[in-house]
Amino acid sequence: MILGIDVGGTAAKIGWMTREGIILRRQEVPVNGDGYATPILTSVLRGADAFLAESPDAEGGLEGIAVSATGQVDDQSGTVIGTNGAIPGYEGTAFRQALEEKYAVPVHVLNDANAAALGETFLGGARGCRDAVMVTLGTGVGGGVISGGKLIRGRRGIAGELGHFSIDRHGVLCSCGQRGCFERYASTTALMRMAWEITDRESVPDGRAFFVRVRAGDAEMARVLERWIEQIAVGVIGLVHLFNPEIVLIGGGVSRQEELLIKPLREQVIRGMMPRFAEGFRLEAAKLGNDAGMIGALKFWLDQEKGQ
Quick one: the chain helix, strand, coil %, rounded to 5? Predict the structure, then answer.
């Protein structure tokens, strides 16, 4: 049995997994209940201890730990090496070292967005595809690239920062210090910023309320949505031209909006790309939801143990 741990900025999901990617039991533990006064690593270790104590007789025992973690992760050392200052005290967190010392089993750690991309090709919407790009739309924009059946990891395992290539070099200042980064235009944060430019936050407090307004026929919100989709399409078209994938998967909670988001985005991307890139191309919503990171971490663990 493999212990899967998916570390986010607010909570960590912990689960027992089979090698086939079936999650048998899971629970969630908060990691920012005190504003990160308690280090995330401490919260994760306490949560793992409690989880394992509740299932001491798990079939086959603990074989290893597969970790998906937010932030830039050096996947050789299993250490968080970058966060853009988003989570106090998190940079430098050595998940692999701490977990191996505590539990004496092999541990492998991967960035959460890369893990989600790997999970989708293992058991999700890109299953069977050798060339795929996943773009996750949330507070920021994340993702990962699969090429020739392998995750593009880069020199230190931090490749795939899809939110941080510029689509407008004179554009909006990004938290990374550059201007015009894709996530400043394609994230749900960007969507709400555009909505709040023409209406008050009380009437459209979040993305769910925004789409309710669009479905109800609000013309102003519909125009905001159209402009947002255009901006997402610009970035996705660039990624398609770079990587020539069979499929682009759109992740994040907003990807459930098939008619309002996925369908028009697909049409714009296919219309905007060079013709040969469009042959056999698909753009779909991701399938695994919140399980993608844990399942992808498992696949990475299995590959690393096989020396792949």
Answer: 40, 20, 35
Question: In this structure, are residues 34 and 62 in contact, taking their beta carbons and an 8 Å threshold?
Answer: no
Residue 58, pLDDT score: 64
Find where tokens 């070099």 sit.
169
In the chain, beta strands by DSSP E: 2-7, 11-17, 23-30, 64-69, 72-74, 79-82, 107-111, 132-137, 141-147, 150-151, 247-251, 282-285
The tokens describing 150, both together, are 């392998």
Task: Give the pLDDT confidence of 275-284 residue by residue, as tens digits.
Answer: 999 999 999 9
User: Tokens representing 236?
Assistant: 């996705």
How many whole angstroms separate alpha carbon 252 and alpha carbon 245? 20
Q: Of the candidates 178, 191, 180, 174, which has an alpha carbon nearest to the alpha carbon of residue 252?
A: 191
Yes or no: say if 133 and 161 are a contact pair by the CB < 8 Å rule.
Answer: no
Taking all residues of the chain, what is their mean pLDDT, rounded to a whole number?
A: 94
Give the model confidence (pLDDT) of 96-114 as tens digits. 999 999 999 999 999 999 9
pLDDT at 209 over 90: yes
Looking at domain 129-287, what is its CATH homologous superfamily?
A: ATPase, nucleotide binding domain (3.30.420.40)
The DSSP-derived string for 227-292 is HHHHHHHHHHHHHHHHH--SEEEEESGGGG-IIIIIHHHHHHHHHHS-HHHHTT-EEEE-SSGGGH
Closest among 286, 297, 276 to 248, alpha carbons compared:
286
Cβ atoms 252, 136 nearer than 8 A: yes
For residue 182, give the nearest of 143, 209, 155, 218 by alpha carbon. Answer: 143
Is CATH 3.30.420.40 the right assignment for the domain spanning 2-115+291-305?
A: yes
Mean pLDDT, residues 55-72 taken together: 84
pLDDT reported for residue 56: 63
Residues 6+ apart with CB under 8 A from 40: 7, 12, 31, 32, 87, 89, 90, 93
Identical fold between 2-115+291-305 and 129-287: yes
| Domain assignments of the chain as residue spans, ordered by start | 2-115+291-305, 129-287
